[in-house]
């Protein structure tokens, strides 16, 4: 770990009311004293921690800005190091000049996420809490924010730590019994351990069961709108987005490329894609759009298959029905405000979820939102304090731990020697350790923190 003093602008590099320059490290207070002229004349090194001081930033006898300086002494700071935060006016130029002044007097520019990385390496937070910081910043809805805050408070850490303590206790008992059989008996222990391992597996599986819902809450649902030309796909996108995002005309094939929009629908984020109408065409540009539509169709979590109810179904409708079969599909029978001519009997096998809508009038959209909630979140989304897995790295590590526990059960069932139990228990213990960062490779840590903002 680098122990030199780092500095960065912690607020956005844009004109705003205030800006914050953050300094952390052994020389943070000393550097601040070199450039800060307090109104009361008292140097920061003589002041109590967690106090705010009014004065000026000075560079070569020139006033750079009028500021407030927040002093936080180690270990009671975000990084557990001496930390200074300079609250200045929020102009881009003034923030740059203050940062340049700090760097000229001994600090170096911080790397992305380096403040949070130091908090992790100094033991103030575990890796799940560190990752929750960037999740809070990137939260797209209230439920994602609450889940991330729950993780920041240590919900996953506490759960993982409790399971690891149970595992290490059993490992220590097995090793003690093998080394000192006179004082530690393993008679009947296999059956006892089987019950413990079964309980641990259930706890891990419960966490794994939350992963899909957690991903939906955090990342949103990747949805694609498909249908033949001129059935109302772009009108549907516009009504969902609440704006004229796509061009809508009576001319078939208006949409030739892919339109993407992020939509919040009753607290659920939809990463929604409007595609070109799928049909046979000789037009080169339109054909590229159709090929893209088919590609996105393969990758989607949810397919919104739009049908024009005012016309009889065509061969193109039946072809699209074949393409979407077996996927998560909601059939949207559009133009319900017109006379109904479409017979849905021949495509009933595509989905049991069929909703009549009028994209033009906005009818049926609430029913669509409810249906998506039912399909992906088992009904109305209600946040509680249950631990939820929202990170694919956590999910993979938990899956590996579960597999190791399964091998313990197999060893017990096959009456293998007890040292086989401790080997697989230790593998499960280490896999859970990767979740919270007890054992993590430098490359992985660097990758995780490189995704953070500068100054965080």
Give a brief outline of the structure.
The protein has 456 residues and is α/β, with parallel strands linked by helices. It is built from 15 helices and 13 strands. A hairpin with a 6-residue loop joins β1 (6-9) and β2 (16-24).
Largest sheet: 7 strands, mixed
The computed structural class is alpha/beta
Oligomer: single chain
What is the radius of gyration?
A: 29 Å
Helicity range: 40-55%
**What's the arrangement of strands in the largest beta sheet?**
3-4-5-6-2-1-7
Distance between the termini: 17 Å
Number of helices: 15
Give the H and E element order. Answer: EEHEEEEHEHHHHHHEHEEHEHEEHHHH
- List low-pLDDT spans: 246-256
> What is the mean pLDDT?
85
Q: How many strand segments?
A: 13
Overall 3D shape: flat
Key attributes of the depicted protein:
alpha/beta; flat; 456 residues; 7-stranded mixed sheet
Task: Describe this protein's structure.
The radius of gyration is 29 Å and the shape is flat. The protein has a seven-stranded mixed β-sheet, with helices on one face. Strands 9-10-8-11-12-13 form a six-stranded mixed β-sheet, sandwiched between helices. By secondary structure, the protein is α/β, with parallel strands linked by helices. It has 15 helices and 13 strands. It is about 45% helix and about 20% strand. The protein starts with 5 loop residues before the first strand and ends in a 6-residue tail after the last helix. The longest helix is centred in the middle third of the chain and has 25 residues, at about 155-180. It has helices spanning about 30-35, 90-105, 115-120, 125-140, 140-150, 155-180, 190-210, 210-220, 235-240, 285-300, 315-325, 365-375, 390-415, 420-435, 440-450; strands spanning about 5-10, 15-25, 35-40, 50-60, 60-70, 85-90, 110, 220-225, 260-265, 270-275, 300-310, 330-335, 355.
């Amino acid at each position: 770990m680098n122990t030199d003093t780092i500095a960065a602008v912690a607020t956005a590099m844009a004109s705003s009311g205030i800006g914050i320059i953050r300094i952390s490290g052994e020389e943070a207070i000393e550097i601040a004293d070199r450039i800060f002229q307090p109104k009361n004349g008292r140097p920061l090194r003589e002041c109590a921690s967690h106090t705010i001081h009014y004065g000026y930033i000075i560079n070569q006898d020139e006033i750079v800005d009028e500021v407030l300086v927040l002093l936080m002494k180690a270990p009671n700071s975000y990084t557990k190091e001496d930390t200074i935060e300079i609250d200045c006016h929020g102009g881009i130029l003034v923030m740059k000049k203050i940062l340049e002044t700090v760097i000229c007097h001994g600090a170096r520019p911080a790397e992305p996420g380096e403040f949070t990385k130091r908090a992790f390496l100094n033991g103030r937070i575990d890796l799940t809490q560190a990752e929750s910081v960037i999740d809070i910043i990137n939260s797209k809805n209230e439920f994602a924010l609450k889940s991330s805050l729950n993780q920041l408070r240590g919900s996953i850490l506490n759960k993982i730590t409790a399971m690891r303590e149970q595992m290490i206790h059993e490992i220590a008992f097995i090793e003690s019994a093998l080394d000192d059989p006179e004082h530690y008996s393993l008679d009947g222990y296999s059956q006892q351990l089987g019950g413990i391992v079964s309980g641990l597996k259930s706890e891990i599986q419960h966490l794994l069961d939350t992963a899909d819902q957690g991903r939906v809450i955090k990342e949103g649902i990747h949805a694609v709108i498909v249908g033949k030309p001129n059935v109302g796909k772009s009108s549907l996108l516009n009504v969902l987005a609440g704006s004229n995002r796509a061009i809508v005309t009576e001319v078939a094939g208006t949409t030739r490329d892919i339109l993407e929009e992020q939509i919040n629908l009753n607290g659920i984020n939809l990463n929604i894609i409007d595609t070109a109408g799928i049909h046979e065409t000789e037009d080169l540009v339109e054909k590229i759009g159709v090929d893209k539509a088919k590609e996105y169709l393969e990758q989607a979590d949810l397919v919104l298959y739009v049908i024009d109810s005012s016309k009889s179904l065509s061969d193109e409708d039946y072809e699209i029905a074949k393409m979407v079969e077996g996927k998560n599909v909601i059939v949207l029978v559009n133009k319900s405000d017109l006379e109904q001519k479409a017979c849905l009997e021949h495509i009933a096998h595509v989905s049991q979820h069929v909703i009549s809508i009028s994209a033009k009038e906005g009818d049926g959209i609430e029913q669509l939102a409810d249906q998506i909630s039912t399909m992906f979140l088992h009904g109305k989304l209600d946040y509680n304090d249950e631990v939820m897995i929202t990170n694919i790295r956590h999910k993979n590590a938990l899956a590996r731990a579960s597999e190791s526990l399964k091998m313990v059960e197999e060893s017990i069932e096959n009456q293998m020697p007890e040292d086989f139990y401790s080997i697989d228990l230790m593998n499960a213990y280490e896999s859970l350790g990767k979740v919270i960062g007890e054992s993590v490779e430098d490359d992985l840590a660097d990758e995780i923190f490189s995704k953070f903002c500068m100054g965080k």
